[in-house]
Amino acid sequence: MSQRSLTSPTGRTSPTSDFPDPKPARVTFDEWQELFEQVPEALVEEYHYFPSNREAFSKYLFPPQTFAIYGMRHLRRLKYDNSLAALRMWGFVQNETERLFRARQTGRRVIATMGDLGAVPVIVNSFPRCTAFYPDCIWWTPFAMESRVLFDAAAELGIGDATCFSRAALGAFAKHSYFPDPDLVIASTGASCDDYSGVEQLAEQFAPEMLWVEMPMRCEMGQMGSMRPMLVQEYQRVVERMEKLTGHHVSDDELRQSVLAANRVRKLVKRLRELAFRQGVLPALEMMVIEFGNLHYYSDITEWTAVLEHLLATAEERAAKGERVLSEGALRVVWVTPPADPLLLTYVEDHGARVVGTEYVINQALEVIDESKPGLEAIAESFMAASLIGNSRARAQSAIDQAREHGAEGVIISGIFGGSHCAMEGRLIADYVKAELDLPVLEFDVAPPSNEIGRQLQTRIDAFLEVLRSRR
Amino acid sequence: MKDLLTPRERFGLLVIDEPQDRVPVFPLVTAHAARVAGIPVRDYYTDGAAMARSQLVAQELYGTDFISFFSEVGLIAEALGSRFDYPDDDLPLLTRPKWSGLAELDEAEADPLKDGRLRVYIDAITYAYEARGDTVPILAYVPAPFTTAQQLVDQEAFLLGLLTEPERVHRLLEYATRSVIRFCRAIIGAGGLPILVDPLASGSVISADHYREFALPPEADVIRYLHRYDLDVVLHICGDTGATIGMMPETGADLLSIDRIGLETAIAGAGDRCRIIGNYDTSAILLSDPVTIEREVGAMVTAGCKCPMGFVAATGCEVPVETPPENVRAFVRAAKEVGFNATFGGRGKTADFGDSPHAGTVPSDGARRRV
Q1: A149 near B CB under 8 A
Q2: Helix (H) or strand (E) holding A416
Q3: Phi and psi of A323, rounded to 5°?
Q4: Which residues pair with A468 in a beta bridge?
Q5: Beta strands A80-81 and A26-27, pairing class
Q6: What is the mean pLDDT of chain A?
Q7: Is A343 in the same domain as A472?
Q8: Residue B363 — very low, low, confident or very high, per pLDDT cuts 50/70/90?
Q9: Cis peptide bond N-terminal to A82, omega within 30
Q10: Is A131 helix (H, G, I), strand (E, B) or coil?
């Protein structure tokens, strides 16, 4: 990818002379405050979400301290990439709750999409002044806040601790304060996480209207093609409902433009994954946030694209100079299932490892959509790569392939305490990996929100990394 | 009555121009917290853990929406060299300002981790943030430069200097501002939201012209610094602000905490630009009876809820140390009841939380839009 192709009309894309990036490193919360104090005022003023909007409220270049003050306590314990692009990314992502409320206040329609993780927002975004978001992503909030508030709210509504952390989304619906009450909820179900289907069912009581979308059932990879027409029909229902809501007939070209915009994001992320996994130019924490941006672009695809371009420019520059944030000698691991507690990624890197591959159950959002096909058909086809609609073997194969490609020395599978399919799937994936690659596998359940990684789990991770080290 | 939202969730909605489930409730409980926690007042302002424990106990006891750290306005001046006495059961008293007149300044800058009792605040914030930071906003009162300056120099000489030596006063204010900002920075790092408090800039002390010339610019400087962090800044000026209320939004403050001024006047003067926090009479909360307090607070909340930018039910200044707890409870109870928003959750449906007053309500559409 040429430097020219990175240039964006929507925002700065490379390190600046106003605030030259320091030598690449992971820095603490306190160190970021020191750095932020040096950021010129003009840069703070420069970045706005909803790019045509220059209102003071839409600025977002703020450090972790800002969000910690508003309750995100875990931020004080993480380590961050020290580039301006990473600061910009964190500010943008942490700002999302406010952004969603501002979307509503400024006349946009807010559409909650649930369950499918990546496909339906491409359709929603083809409609003018519509903002799609995933309440599913609220699952990180209890960890970020080190709080049980949302879990308690979900428990009062019938979903207790023996369920995936994604139940936090139900608590958020009930609270009316983590996102605006959506104009429409589009809930995908069927071949998905059982727990989350339960969350969706209970969330219906808060929705003005719920449109249910059937995702294809689990089947062997070779049979998936036959399910595609059914999915196209389901997406056609989404289009019809959106047209009814907005009074706007979406054209083929609008749908195609939305596919192109989604693909722009997916291609940028693909390149960032290559650079990070091969050359260690960005930490695992930032990379997880980057990957999950493929779901709904943190509610503003235009600005998120600019943030990614900035990150990629930074990553490319580091790669060209041979600069890394993680040591070349670090232990190489593939991570399966996203850690609900981001502190785990910081912990593993602090102890001498780096992530060189991920299977975060969002493969469908990483897949580039075929731009030569009609919009809905192409979106449906890309969704067929979904992590959770295939069998466990398919997820294991993805991890195995990445481990081979990047010479991984071990695999970490972080299940979800109480999550139903995690308990079933983790062991299967571990067995596949061991059988095919003879690599050590660490499998554990992420504990509920806390201000630290539990001592027992620390010991397990330490021992695992020691095993990897001993095999060198 | 069980709240739907936590105080933090409620405050989060207030500052992004969204209606809340009820009015946030904020009697300014500062050293009074020590009394209800059974902690000596002197310990409260000299020991961060004691200060935090006091506030945590009081917040839980009263069910208020904020934890707020404050002892007295001389804090930064002391860290810069003014002398204070620490009575056993009362707040610190200024015994000797750093300078007797508007003399030449030194290069000192207060270090929040070393000088005076600034560290007490930082420790208290850290403690409270760990304990309750996920559900309750942690506020810390920071004496503004103008008030700090009057604790650095003999007050009479300072006030005379406004007329006779304005340049020296401006230099002193710049000197104070540097330490104020440095203290704010440390508070931010600890997880606290600074509130700028400038009681000696009230109309009870200076004229509106002097407010504009001397107090407002350094307030604005500090607020500008806090806005770099996108923080929602409260400016608290107790006493009479009738002549300056229209100017106070020019500081950039997002919320104005007011005292001796009619609520309608304050809303008319600034309510289209700032959220208003106020302003129940602190003498009344000390000396009145619960029934009267409930009635008066109810009337105040009814009036305050007409503020276009939002309202927080508060006392005009600190709840006096000796205030009977039943009076504070009466304040909180009335503010919550009268400030309850039956239309909350307007676009969606509300949860059935058992004994919640929200059970079964389906408010009308459109109630949430404000901007």
Answers
A1: yes
A2: strand A410-416
A3: -95, 145
A4: none
A5: antiparallel
A6: 92
A7: yes
A8: very low
A9: no
A10: strand
Q: What is the pLDDT of residues B125-167, one digit of tens each?
A: 999 999 999 999 999 999 999 999 999 999 999 999 999 999 9
Number of domains present in the structure of chain A: 2
pLDDT at B354: 38
CATH of the domain at A468: 3.40.50.11900
DSSP one-letter code for A372: T
Of A97, A388, A383, the C-alpha closest to A262 is A383
Among B122, B228, B233, B273, which would you mutate to test the A interface (most chain A Cβ atoms within 10 Å of its Cβ)? B228
Q: Are residues A331 and A201 in the same domain?
A: no
Residue A106, exposed/middle/buried by CB under 10 A (0-12, 13-18, 19+)? Answer: middle
Rounded to the nearest angstrom, the gap between the alpha carbon of residue B265 and the centroid of all alpha carbons in its chain is 20
pLDDT for residue B356 is more than 60:
no
What is the distance between the alpha carbons of residues A298 and A131, in angstroms, rounded to a whole number? 10
- Residue A71 inside a domain? The answer is no
For residue B265, which phi and psi values (nearest 5 degrees)?
A: -65, -40
**B321 contacts B28 by C-beta, under 8 angstroms:** no
Residues 6+ apart with CB under 8 A from A154: A160, A163, A167, A168, A170, A171, A174, A199
Asked if B229's CB is within 8 angstroms of A66's CB, the reply is yes
Which residues of B, range 278-297, sit inside 8 Å of A by Cβ? none
Question: In terms of DSSP H, where are the helices of B165-289?
Answer: 166-190, 208-210, 216-228, 263-270, 282-287
Does the beta carbon of A267 lie under 8 angstroms from any beta carbon of chain B? no
Q: Which of A100, A97, A89, A11 is nearest to A54 (CA)?
A: A11
Query: pLDDT tens digits, residue range B9-44?
Result: 999 999 999 999 999 999 999 999 999 999 999 999
What tokens appear for A146 in the block? 């080190």
Question: Domain range for residue A428?
Answer: 327-359+391-472
How many pairs of residues across A and B have Cβ atoms under 8 Å apart?
113
- Amino acid sitting at position B274: C
Residue A219, both tokens = 């089947």
pLDDT at B256: 98
CA dihedral B266, B269, B274, B278 (to 10 degrees): 0
Query: Would residue A279 count as lying in a domain?
Result: no
List of long-range contacts for A15-18, beta carbons under 8 Å, 24+ apart: A15/A83, A15/A84, A15/A85, A15/A313, A15/A314, A15/A317, A16/A43, A16/A84, A18/A42, A18/A43
Q: Per DSSP, what are the bridge partners of residue A81?
A: A26
Tokens of B4: 């739907």
Nearest to A71 among B4, B133, B346 (CB): B133
Q: Are residues A332 and A463 in the same domain?
A: yes
Give the 3-state secondary structure of residue A415.
strand
Q: Which residue in the set A30, A65, A97 is minimally distant from B229, CB to CB?
A: A65
User: What are the structural domains, with CATH classification, of chain B?
Assistant: 7-338 (3.20.20.210)
